[in-house]
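Structure tokens please, single chain.
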Amino acid sequence: MQNRKNSTIPQVTPELFNHSDNPAKSRHVYTVTEISQDIKLILESSFGEVWIEGEVSNFQIASSGHFYFTLKDDTAVLPAVMFSRANKEVKFKIENGLKVICFGKISAYAPRGQYQIIVEQIEPKGIGSLQLALEQLKQKLEKEGLFQTAHKKPIPYLPAKIGIVTSLSGAAIKDILKVLDRRFSDVQIIVNPAQVQGELARQEVSQAIEDFNRFNEGLPFVEKIEVLIVGRGGGSMEDLWAFNEEIVARAIYNSKIPIISAVGHERDWTIADLVADLRAPTPSVAAELVTPKKEDLKEKLTGLLQDLKRSFLDLSLNSKEMLDDFTHRLSLSMQNLLKLNLSEFETIRKKLTLLNPIVLIQRHRLSLTDLARQIYVRMQHFLELRQAKFNLALEKLSSLSPLSILGRGYSITFKLPEGLILKDSKNIKIGDTIKTKLHKGEILSEIKQTHPTA
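Here you go.
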């Protein structure tokens, strides 16, 4: 596709299209820069601004923020560049293979010697850019689990404090306050205002949610904000776009305070609706969901009170019957207990008589006397046995004593001065002194002669 603003080719250097029969006379030699500049001038003057349809390939984002890519169809390719000043407004993610329609200027890039399109606007073919951006972000956040039911927090039944994030100048805040005042005027409301439309809306809405969470930190439970209503009134997709921004979605997901999304569109769901703990189709419905109606509570409490009174009445009637029965049972129990106690008393009295200390002392005294007599007899018998054993041992010792042997005429001879007992005459010599021990007394002798045995 192309759109030419001028059908005539502008005047350029005449020599460029001069076909003289004599090249030597009319020859003009261009520098590379000169020919590149002329080509650039012809392209830009001939085409101007155009719409071009193609498929994105080789998409890259430079460190400068510029987008570089190629547009292609079945038979041709066209390099493209979209500078950062222009691509800031692009809501969707440009990807390889995406069919797009670009608006821009055809130009030549001299350093590479190639022509290209400088893109000013880009939109996906067959679907609006906002719708595509919405679908892309949905897929991304769904993969991360931000929409899962397991992450959603319960909404308190009757919160004492409610936080609201919306614009102070919109209809949403008025609707919310009106409904809350009508249903339960005693609840405390704190509003953290934020723009809900325009470039600053996404930042202010997400910041307001984070502010409420910081406000709650360190507060006792009774002073905490228990639930947040975040939203705005109805509008077009562009008007509601702040609630389709990733920064807002993550602020809702990371909030420790339960959040009710209240974006005023009943048919379509925003990203905020999908991430929030509870979705309300309008701000008014959000106010109804967060607080019960006071009249309904009063009616319910009245019914419960009546049920309680009936229960007490039934209980009192039943209690009288139960009390009479209990009194009768108690009387019978006391009579039986008295009889049992009298019987036990008589038994204990008899036991105490038998266990009288005087009787026990007399009984134990007789036992001690008998025991002492037995001990004496046994000790006497034990001593007699020990005396008999002692006498027998003494007789054995006496018979084995050397003195007893000496008394029968034997003697013991010792060699002096060593005092060794002599058993063989070989152990003495002439001149040695010996001592002979008799049964009574000792004899000292000097050896004059020895007679060794054979």
